[in-house]
Design goal:
The complex is a heterodimer.
Chain A (H helix, E strand, L loop, with lengths): L9 E2 L7 E2 L14 H20 L1 H4 L2 H10 L1 H15 L7 H19 L3 H25 L4 H20 L9 H8 L1 E2 L2 E2 H19 L1 H11 L1 H6 L4 H27 L11 H11 L10 H20 L6 H20 L9
Antiparallel strand pairs in A: 1-2, 3-4
Chain B lengths: L1 H47 L24 E6 L5 H16 L2 E6 L5 H13 L4 E4 L8 H9 L3 E4 L20 H18 L6 E6 L4 H18 L4 E6 L2 H5 L3 H11 L5 E4 L8 H7 L7 E5 L3 H9 L4 E5 L1 H16 L14 E4 L17 H11 L5
Parallel strand pairs in B: 1-2, 1-3, 3-4, 5-6, 5-7, 7-8, 8-9
Antiparallel strand pairs in B: 9-10
Classes of the chains: A mainly alpha, B alpha/beta.
Amino acid sequence: MTVDQQPPVLVSDGGGAGTPVGASPHRRRRIRLGMDRFSGLYAWALIIIVFAIWTPDTFLTTVTVKTIASNQAITGILAVALVVPLAAGAVDLSVATAAGACSVFIAVLQVSFGIPTVLAIIITLCLGLVIGLVNGFVVVNLRINSFIATLATGSLLSALAIWMSKNQQVQGISSSLTKVGQGTLAGIPLPFVYLIVLSAFVWFALEHMPVGRYLYAIGGNPEATRLAGMRNGLYTRIAFLVSGFLAAVAGIVLTGVIGVASAPTAPPYLLPAFAAVFLGSTQIVKGRANVLGTLVAVFLLGTGIKGLELVSAGPWVNGAFNGIALIVAVGLAVSRGRGSIERIG
Amino acid sequence: MNARRATRGFRLVATAAVGGALLVSTVGTLGAVAANSGKARAAALVKKYSPVPSAKSIVGVTPFTKRPPTGKTIAYINCGVAPCSTKFSPGIHAAAAVLGWTAKDYNYTPANPVTLQSAIQSAINDNVTAIVATAGQPTVTITGQKAAKAKGIIWINGFGAGTWKATTTVTAGLFYGPVEGQFDGTLMAAYLAQQSAKGPVHTALLRVKAFDSVHLPKIVGLKKGLATMCKACTYTEITESAEQQIGNQSSSVVVSYLQAHPTINYIIFESGQPAAGIQAALATAGLSSKVKVVGFAPTDPQISSVAKGTEDMWVYECDTCAGWYFADAAALILAKKPVTTITSVPLPTQVATKQSVPATPPIPYAFPTTSQLKAKFSAIWRIAS
């Protein structure tokens, strides 16, 4: 239990309610708005209100909601993929290039080898697991800092994607794979459905299962967990396996959404995903990367960018918004002086 | 006296009214004639360029009197992405094979100018016969051009605006300059002018200014064409960054713009690659039936979409043919013949619509076909097939 979570020491003032030590007995009762944990939700609401007033005819529509949900799905999946190794105190910089490699891989499987969609998806997910295994091996067995290790593997994966695609768009995927990315479920874009389902699994595993507690414990104090006899290496490898798997999912969905695959498409998703994770670490469960906070951040950022696009803010919007969010998020985390974000790598 | 003045005044007013009416009707008639002639021109252009290009579309080439020398090497400074690697390079390699030459690619990374200079230097060090560069404006490769000239290596620029000058060893600005690009823009304008007969045409072109060296002539031709063939058509631009386009955010940018500008009913793409995913994005936004997709330089999926009717029209041009033209230019220069005519004609081009493309388009969509190009250029180069 951290300092913030300890209950205040109360002194009875005869009125039955008790007053925190050091506080004036005549102090007004404060209404707790949860700004420390839910500031992202308030910011999101503020953004919605601002754009609802600024451009009411175009912003407050179901089209806007659907496009934000669809556009942010892949960023969200990659952000959730980042949460898992971050929980264990490691960073996976290769998630975006892994998604790109898997995106190209599944397209090549279909176009060059005629492999049916379901089998191609399974094989591509296996590729994601292999990528995770490699990352885990390099970080755990070779004891290379995860930042450097995944930067290197990311570069290799980028080269792999370029080689597989011959540096061109891979065209001609099947309509069934296209439906995986472009279909809807009761009017909801399927990529958004995948994001919610996957996030639910990861959230449950991290927050309510022993493996999640072990990962956070390792991320919080790896030396203590090692001394306690925990198998840090095993759980770190598990974390990279999960991030590799989720990166593969993102790549498959990306190919389905676009209808073609090309090597340079996925890497630009890395910054928005990190921005969401770090901003999300200041939300819900502050001080550590968490799924719910990440989701709030993903859609907060997506809503802001969408609103700025609707008012024709210009091509600088995306980068500026994500960059500012990243600075604010990391600044808030550092100023609090706690959390696994500080101990990355 | 007063009556005379009144009569005179009345006559003046009447004369002015009649004169004014005549002037207005004359201007209106002339305008209508101009509009009709503009539409007639548009219809004629679309009709002329609707058929699938054949070998007859290869024009502006000069027949040789004898076969070009064999055993030469032609180097292509390859940017590694479409259309460099997918169209120009295969065209150069196919042409070189017919000529009995060796074709070699020297790859570079567009985002890293150092690799461009390295690729050029490698080709020069290998003492090739000719270098073909499509790396943007000739000013980008000026150092390489001078080094090549010093070694007597032919230099051919695939891009270039402004005045074209040729010598026996250096050429400049063959294609994708004012002629080729503006012609494509004119065809687009002609098609849109034709569509305006069915209803208002309000267009938005997705533009990346960083790629203006390639696409600006198309925009110039489009705007000029709309001004003469469809004055009622409107034109606007959606600006996006190169990073957004590479990161496949084009669809999101387009949909947001369409939401903010609901009168737009035609979205124009400068090239086919950024249009990947646009159909899904329009469908999610409920705009598929309202907004038509048109563009330049389609990839095969766009041609397939046109055949299915889910996209409206793409201006197809035979980029592979450019590779053959580059090789032909090198052969002409070796034979000390002028290459002026090539710069003044467009590549084989088609207004690709549902009506004009095959119901099941071949993949890759390449017309004239390689065999047609081989036969045509073999005849030009006096090479027995």
